[in-house]
Amino acid sequence: MVGSYAFSPIGYQGFACGVSVPEDCRFNTAVKYRVEIGQFRLAALWQFGDYSQNNAATGSYQFQIGGDIANLAGGKLSLDAIGSYVQNAVSIALAGNTLPAVLPQALTARLSDDTSVMLLAKYSNGPVRLFAGYEYIQYAPPSNAFAAGTGFNDTAGNFVCTGCVAINNTNINSTAFNSGDRLLHIFWTGINYTLTTDLDVMAGYYHCDQPTFGAPANCAAAVTPATCHGTFDAIHRRGGPIGA
Asked: What confidence score (pLDDT) does residue 240 get?
């Protein structure tokens, strides 16, 4: 909320931007168009180019529609909806052997086609601003895969290729969601109150839910597989100079 990345789980974990792939929170080559028509607004973004331009996807599209309702109970209500699609999104992580007992791990690029819908609301009335939001995210198998021995440079300039653990300790995983798409639901709400012209206080609540996905797994095991159902809840509060 209000750009408080150091305090918001959405900001410091990065699971809400880039259609839940932090590498795609920013694009190197993109065009954005925005227009306001009365109380309504429209926007669109197209990421062109691919990995060769240090993008973490081969293509991305975003569309936004929103508007403001003025003089609602003395304040203003803003509503927005954003749809996103990212093709062949790259998520970089260490995979393979379990740390720290067994080394090495392979630098692995997981590929997926990701889709999201975000619904946002903000109500402002004097010193009070109320926020609420929901994001639906779906991870699906990528549109393209790489044959053994072929790959690309990631955004940090590292060359990763399929089945290259023995060559440069890298790999590309194109099959993470072949047994079923992964879904993620993110909810948040909060309040921001301006005490003085130099001092704001805020509080927020965040909830994430991941349904079980993929191949059948023993979700009652001592070490729960990452494909099992899970939830995350967080509360944050903050007080300080505006923009701090």
From this structure: 44
